[in-house]
Structures are given as C-alpha cells and as structure tokens.
Specification:
Length: 386
C-alpha cells in the first residue's frame, strides 16, 4: 500500500504540472486569436514568427515533462527562425513542425483535462484501497488509475509531439548542409596548408638545389674541388627536399596506416610523442588478421589522435596521456585523455575546430570535456560498417 501511495503521489505531481500547462494553454488561446486576426489583415503578420517561437517553447516544455516521465526523450526538429521578417514568416509557415505543434496544442485543449479525473480518485482510492489492499492484502485497484492517467497524458503527448518524417528530413538536410560547408572549409584549409608547405619548404629547397648544380657545372673545369663541395651540398638539399615531401605525403594520408593499420599507426604516434602515452585497444586488430574500418575513418581517427596529442604536449602541461580505441557495433570510438591544466578553447587556435570539421564530414561526433584544472577528454565517434 505504501508503494502504491508513493507512486500515485508521483503521478499526481506529474498531472498537476500538466494541469498548470493546460491552464496556460487555455490562456494562450487569446494570443493565437490575436495573431490570427492580425495576420489575416496583414498588418500584424510580424507577430506570427514570435507566436510560433512561443508555441515551440510551450511544446518543448511538454516534451521535457513527458520525456522525464517515460524515460524516453522526444526529439525536436525545428527550422531556425532567422533572417528578415519575410524570411522568418516564410520559415514559420513552411516548417512542418509548426503544424505538428499546433495540432498538439489543439488536442491538448481536450486531453489536458485528464488531471481533473484524479481529484475524485484520491478519496475513493484511500477508502477502497485502504480496505482492499491494507486489510484484505489484495492488489490496489483505484490509486493505480492515477498513474495510468499520467501514462496516458505522456503517451498522447509523445505521439502528437513526435516530429514528422518530413520535419526530420528537413533538419537532416540542414545538418548535412552545415557539415558539407565545414568539410569544404576543412578541405580548402588542407589544400592551402599543403600548398604553403610545398612552396615554403620543398620548392625553396629544389630551387636552391638547381642553383647549386648549375654552379657546380660551371666550376667543374676550373675548380673541381669547389664543384665537389657544391655537389655535396646539392645532395644534402635533395635529401632535405625528400624529407619535406614525405611530411607532406604523411599529412595527406599517412603511409603507416596502409602498412600497419590504425592500431600500429597509433602505437607509432604514441612512441614518437613527447608525452608518456598509454594506448588501449578494444576489439581492434592490426588489420592483417581482422576487419578494418574504411580508410577515411582510419585517417580521421589518426589525425584526431595526432592533433590531440600535439595539443596536449604544447598547451596542457601534462606529462602523460591515455588513448583508447574501441570497435563499436555502429562504428569506431576514440578517446584521448590528459591530466593537464584543461581549459581547452576551440576559438584559441588549438586545432579543435579543424578536428570537428574533419569528423563532421564523416557524419561523426566530437565531445570535448576540458574544465579548468583538467583533465581534458576528447571523445570521437565515427560511424562505419565493419
């Protein structure tokens, strides 16, 4: 009986909040009527986007309440109301979620009265269930009806507030548009970096190499010893130019990924890092005796780890870091943790923005946790099929 009363109390609190929201919705009818009249006469059309924003907030509050009761979050799929008044008005009218919220609000005027039904259930339940459950040791029959009312309210809200497939598609298209723009920006930045490396490094060394060879050819007949020294210098320049080219190639796609797989490549990164790096692997192999992630996914994971370790060595003040690689059912997971000073800022030029763009291009997700004082944890999920 005590557990039944406690559960009925929780349901009563849930229904009381719903009753308060219902009362607010009834008051909101006046705002809707004023907006409809003003929009009809065109003069007050600017009120429509603001009214839609207000409806979104009310619907969002109901989503949170119903999700907290059922334990399953109700997603949102709204198009942002930005731009000029005309653009905001067009978006508010064309957004499929506007119709979804309006339909829910109309229905909520009816089923929002469910909390009223619980009022007679409490005295009846205490009397009936007190005897039925307390004395006869039977299962309560009246007070559980209050919980069912709360379940019914949450269920109807979930069904009515769930975004339509068209709205979810519109949000997905918007996300893909943003990630495509980020991928294009990251690709452009990468091309500029490669061009800068080739121009400032390899090209300058090759020009100097050509000049040394030309001078050696001219001095060969008169001063063979000087020509030999110039050729030695030219050989040194050629080796340095080859080293620069190797660095450029590694930045495009590290050959070690092809030769040793992601596990071996990360092990080489850890060995060459200025930090004491511990690498743990869960469900992955070196690629020779098991499935491997696609090359683009491995490259993204490699660059995320390389950038994270570089940032940790430069900015965190830590002397060690942990790298964890895990194979998941839906993709590859990467976690890099250091015990440094924390406070990583994407706007501070630490490479986090480029990391996000690279991962977003593969429809992945980056989570950065870096409170002041540390630790800094970078978690990446890259979807793929094994």
């Amino acid at each position: 009986m005590r557990a039944t009363v406690r559960q009925a109390g929780r349901a009563t609190l849930q229904l009381a909040v719903s009753a308060a929201m219902t009362f607010g919705s009834y008051i909101f009818i006046t705002v809707l009527l004023l907006t409809a009249i003003a929009t009809a006469v065109v003069v007050g059309a600017f009120m429509l986007p603001e009214t839609v924003l207000l409806i979104r907030r009310i619907a969002g509050a109901k989503r949170q309440q119903a999700g907290a009761w059922t334990g399953r979050a109700i997603p949102e799929a709204y198009q942002p109301l930005t731009g000029t008044v005309r653009e905001r008005l067009r978006t508010a009218v064309r957004d499929p979620s506007t119709l979804t919220d309006f339909r829910w609000m109309v229905a909520y005027y009816a089923y929002g009265a469910l909390p009223v039904l619980m009022l007679p259930l409490w005295p009846l339940g205490l009397a009936v269930d007190g005897v039925w459950c307390g004395l006869l040791r039977r299962k309560a029959v009246v007070l559980p009806l209050i919980t069912r009312l709360a379940d019914l309210d949450a269920h109807w809200s979930t069904v009515l507030l769930k975004p339509s497939p068209k709205a979810q598609l519109a949000v997905r298209v918007e996300e893909l548009t943003q990630t495509r723009a980020g991928a294009i920006a990251a690709h452009g930045a990468e091309l500029r970096r490669i061009e800068r490396d080739l121009h400032d490094g390899t090209q300058a060394r090759l020009v100097s190499l050509s000049m040394r060879i030309g001078l050696a050819k001219r001095a060969y007949d008169q001063d063979p010893e000087a020509a030999r020294r110039m050729l030695d210098d030219a050989q040194t320049l050629a080796e340095e130019a080859l080293t620069d080219l190797r660095h450029v190639v590694r930045a495009i796609h590290p050959p070690i990924l092809t030769d040793r797989g992601l596990v071996g490549a990360v092990g080489a990164l850890a060995a060459g890092s200025a930090l004491d790096v511990t690498v743990t692997v869960d469900g992955l192999t070196d690629g020779h005796d098991g499935p491997r992630a696609p090359a683009a996914v491995e490259a993204a994971a490699y660059f995320v780890i390389a950038e994270s370790l570089t940032n940790a060595a430069k900015y965190s003040g830590a002397d060690r870091a942990d790298v964890h690689l895990a194979r998941a059912r839906t993709g590859l997971r990467v976690r890099v943790r250091d015990e440094g000073r924390g406070g990583a800022d994407e706007a501070g030029g630490s490479g986090l923005l480029g990391m996000r763009r690279r991962v977003a291009a593969l429809d992945g997700r980056v989570t950065v946790t870096s409170p002041v004082g540390g630790p800094t944890v970078i978690e990446v999920e890259l979807p793929c099929v094994w």
